[in-house]
Amino acid sequence: MPEHLMCELSVPGRVGFQYPESDVPAAQLPEDMLRDDLPLPELAEIDVVRYFTRLSQLNHSVDTGFYPLGSCTMKYNPKINEETARIQGFANLHPLQPIETSQGALALMYHLQMWLNEIGGFAGTSLQPAAGAHGELTGVLIIRAYHRSRGDTKRNKILIPDSAHGTNPATSAMSGLQVIELRSDDRGNVDLDALREHCDDTLAGLMLTNPNTLGLFDENVEEVNRLVHEAGGLIYGDGANMNALLGIIRPGDIGFDVLHYNLHKTFSTPHGGGGPGSGPVSVTEQLVDFLPDPVVDIIEPGDEESGVPPLYGLVAPNKTIGRVKAFQGHFGMFVRAYTYIRMHGAEGLRKVSENAVLNANYLLAKLRDTYHIPYDRVCMHEFVAEGRWAEAPDIHALDVAKRLMDFNFHPPTNYFPLIVHESLMIEPTETESKETLDAFAKTLIQIAEEAHSDPELLKSAPHTTPFGRLDEVKAAKELVLCCVPEYARG
Amino acid sequence: MNIPADLKYSENDEWIRIEGNTGTVGITDFAQDQLSDVVFVEIIAEQDEELNQGDACATVESVKAAADVYLPVGGTITEINEDLLDTPELVNTDPYGEAWMVKIELSDPSQADGLLDADAYQKHCEVRLA
Prior knowledge:
The complex is a heterodimer. Chain A has helices at 45-58, 80-85, 88-91, 103-120, 132-149, 167-174, 192-198, 221-230, 331-367, 397-404, 434-453, 455-459, 472-477, and strands spanning 124-126, 157-161, 178-182, 203-209, 234-239, 258-261, 281-283, 295-300, 311-315, 383-386, 413-414, 423-426.
């Protein structure tokens, strides 16, 4: 049954909320700012509760089903994260409180900065960026500021491999740099010959997603980083795929200069409608002074013997690029990520990545005979398959994705990366059991059989959702964003 | 797959029809098929603008992806196909006809010598579909 819009359920005069008696004098508002209409839906509290509860039950979420959305790392979000984020001293803080009264929060931020330094192999971290792409923008602005501070003003070019995340070119363009796309070689690595052509004194840097969007670890990464550094450029690491590397490789140790993390991917904070995200940026020693203002630091050392704790405060780096976010960023996410890191410890984090890689390779091995795998080699935390068969010419990746919904699986990312035809990008994450992976593989194999025996079943999928196949062309072209109810019209 | 013999092609899936010193540019049947349903076309190039070979002149957005359209040969923009703004689906239905994107006055006709002919472009498509 299709759901009504809330405004369609409105009944004039129905009230869902009563104001408490005012304990302050009524304020006199200017006459011309007063109005006697307010076109909002009028509903009782129970109607509103039922409405949103029903809508929430229509959602697919990681709490209700497998969510192998490639590059998004839709891992389980442990519920203890929610408990710690609700501790009163964290949840009820105001960001403008004097630092003496918010030492616990500042200490948590300080330690999270330190742990991210340690995990990535870096010297300094800013927690401010709101999410991944914002972290990229912050990182590229740091690279630009570094070159300019040296009077090196002609470096205006940034290289981005065609297997990078789609946000990389956008953030570089926003920073005023010229974006040049680098092709991949036939093993899915950065093509070194293409790279060499651009290694000159106009090179600001290169943005490397590693593992890349094919789920492959770039076998040339050290040579890529060496060539760029030799030309005077810096390496930006898109850490969205850090879930493959925790405790195994530290990007800072192999030549990366800047890296962002997605707390909402790797470190289990809510994601995909449940956010907000959080995209901290870590840098090497030579870039620490350019970090956004402020970072958390110890401003008065404590004394362990007499039990006096250090005083944490907010400090502006010397050559800071300035503030990139209001207040300190998405603090609630810091508490959740901190909890996640504490719960796992160093060894636990390494196991996270080992199991994420193992799960992806297990699925890959199960599907390889049924789905064509371009760039077929040992993958990292995800892999890319093709949703097409020569003997089923009408079937596209989109049809496979839609049919998966009939089995309560969230579809994989499709049509990205662009360098694979009809791509299905599958990332199981470490939190799924062998039973879930087996059920998913079995379903994908069944769908491949259906593609040949009953293609119409795929073309018309999904069949079990409240709405069937949506008209994507109409959705993109006819932007009707809200419904104006009868009572609110002219 | 429709690949007219009288056009020249770029590796990036643009076509150009050269008549004397003028060229008409659009994207190929292969390109529209890969993009699937086109929902927006934006012509970035402006009337009388001088562009080099390889400069972006338009953006095509489908339900799957957005792609830039590059000039296969440099030149001055003499005409822009405004119809595509309201009826982007022409790119799917008539890529070599009504869905032309820009017309240019060629700045250096010899640049066209480096483009692919229909046979070479056909092979270029087949390799990618294999």
